[in-house]
Design a protein that fits this description.
Blueprint lengths: L1 E4 L19 E4 L8 H4 L5 E4 L6 H5 L5 E4 L9 H7 L2 E3 L6 H16 L2 H9 L23 E5 L3 H12 L3 E5 L11 E2 L2 H7 L2 E4 L13 H4 L7 E4 L8 H10 L3 E4 L22 E3 L8 H19 L2
Parallel strand pairs: 1-2, 1-3, 3-4, 4-5, 6-7, 6-9, 7-8, 9-10, 10-11, 11-12
Helix pairs in contact: 4-6
Keywords: NAD, Oxidoreductase
Family: Belongs to the D-isomer specific 2-hydroxyacid dehydrogenase family.
EC number: 1.1.1.290
């Protein structure tokens, strides 16, 4: 077999891809532009892709037998055309749950404990000039006793909810599908959750029910100084409205995802004044070393299962 990985850069240079050599010839490219797909897939039986789109034209110009998506989402593959051509498509799920849950609380505590301010205070030399042992210029808050709302109570959302409860918060959730009935936590409608919670964490997929779910009207329901976090998908939150709320209503916001990735150079979140109220990370919540190791192992297992028929 010939296996081609089109965007190995999305898996990281610290993860070993030699596991795929057990199946035959393996060729890896760090990134692949749209006009390079067909040439690179000549003679390939299996393609591994994360964000490189495998469309009808690409499939028709190749002899692919298996498309391995190195992610959970499958929107980068024309699934209907793959089915029509008899090309198997395999994704991976569940590999990043612990990583995303951990990153959620890393960002939350960076906001509640004012880590950006105090780290800069100490490393800038200002602490060395102090007449007292501490600095209380920024108020640190505890999450114990606070109301914690989860939007999207799937596997990751449940993990976040359980840890939030372990920290002493009062956890509730909003089901974006309307079908999730979880007896462990209190279910609220969206308005109740936004207006009643001190902390709101989004862990939902992007679909017709969640696109633009949180706009200016919804943000205005939230408490002054509340924390909103998005670890689901860009497009769920109106980012321009969030930028206004950070400066206008003292909203604190953490996000690992944006509607357009990589981030636009003219993004409104780059122009806010209240920068201590913002934590942005470049879509890395999923990407602990351990999660990426699991991901590669699961792709290899998908290839093995395909070969077994």
């Amino acid at each position: 077999m010939k296996i081609v990985c089109l965007d190995a850069a999305t898996l990281g240079s610290d993860v070993n891809l030699d596991v795929f050599k057990q199946f035959g010839e393996f060729k890896s490219y760090q990134t692949t532009a749209a006009n390079e797909r067909v040439e690179r897939l000549k003679g390939a039986d299996v393609v591994i892709t994360n964000k490189v789109v495998i469309n009808k034209e690409t499939m028709d110009a190749s002899n692919l037998k298996l498309i391995c998506i190195s992610a959970t989402g499958m929107n980068n593959v024309d699934l209907a055309h793959a089915a029509a051509k008899g090309i198997a498509v395999k994704n991976v799920a569940g590999y990043s749950t612990a990583s995303v849950v951990q990153h959620t609380f890393a960002c939350l505590f960076a906001l509640t404990n004012r880590v950006k301010f105090y780290d800069n205070y100490a490393q800038s030399g200002e602490w060395a000039k102090s007449e007292i042992f501490t600095n209380l210029d920024r108020s640190i808050g505890e999450i114990a006793g606070k109301s914690f709302g989860v939007i999207g109570l799937g596997e990751i959302g449940r993990g976040v909810a359980r840890i939030a409860a372990a920290f002493g918060t009062r956890v509730s959730y909003y089901s974006t599908s309307g079908a999730n009935a979880n007896a462990e936590f209190k279910r609220l409608n969206l308005g109740e959750l936004l207006s009643g919670c001190d902390i709101v964490s989004i862990h939902a997929p992007l679909n017709e029910k969640t696109r633009n779910l949180i706009g200016e009207r919804e943000l205005n329901l939230m408490k002054e100084g509340a924390i909103l976090m998005n670890f689901g998908r860009g497009g769920i939150v109106d980012e321009s409205a969030v930028a206004r709320a950070i400066d206008g209503r003292n909203l604190r916001f953490a996000s690992d995802v944006l509607e357009t990735e990589p981030m636009r150079a003219d993004h409104p979140l780059l122009r806010i004044k209240n920068k201590e109220n913002l934590i942005l990370t470049p879509h890395v919540a999923w990407a602990s070393y351990e999660a990426r190791e699991r991901l590669v192992a699961m792709i290899a297992e998908n290839i093995k299962e395909f070969l077994k028929g």
